Amino acid sequence: MAVIIAAGFILFYVAYRFKEKRYGVCAILAMFHDSLILLGIYSLLGHFFGVEIDTLFVTAVLTILSFSVHDTVVVYDRIRESVRLYPRADYYSLVNKAVAETLTRSVNNSMTIIFMLLTLYLLGGETTKWFVFALLIGTISGTYSSTFTAAPLLVVWNSLIKKK
């Protein structure tokens, strides 16, 4: 329920800030990708290793959603900036340019988080082990989806609009 409520607020906010609902919808779809990856891994861990979902897991999911959307907004902002600077350019090329410009930043940002989470997972206590693992999986999935799911969804949406 918390994920759906958070998704609604994020959809509204991103659509409002970017002045187009397609940005909000694509960000939410990428965010749900991260949620499904995390839920799928945890369902397998629960089935095979008896890992239980608790309030720390819900906290991890909501944290990952915010991280994923933040990363997506950075890419979307660069796309919006490129569209303003080069209005006659092909949308596909502008999205590709924006992804290339933000990829290094996203990877560097994520790697610092991943190194910290790996250290916390290996050296931390038993009570935070699965919480940190959820954050780790979500960070990896969120980094991937911001660049390689959210941006291509915009390109597909744009191409569907042009066909009509």
Question: What structural class do helix, strand and pairing data support?
Answer: mainly alpha
- For the record, the count of structural domains works out to 1
Task: Kindly provide the radius of gyration, computed on alpha-carbon positions and rounded to a whole number of angstroms.
Answer: 17 Å
* Weakly predicted, low-confidence segments: none
Number of strands: 0
Shape: elongated
Order of helices and strands: HHHHH
User: Helical segment tally?
Assistant: 5
For the biggest sheet, the summary is: none
Q: Supply the CATH architecture.
A: Up-down Bundle
End-to-end C-alpha gap: 36 Å
Helix amount: over 70%
Q: Would you identify the CATH H-level superfamily?
A: Multidrug efflux transporter AcrB transmembrane domain
Which CATH C-level class is it?
A: Mainly Alpha
The amount of beta strand, in percent, is under 5%
CATH fold-level topology: Multidrug efflux transporter AcrB transmembrane fold
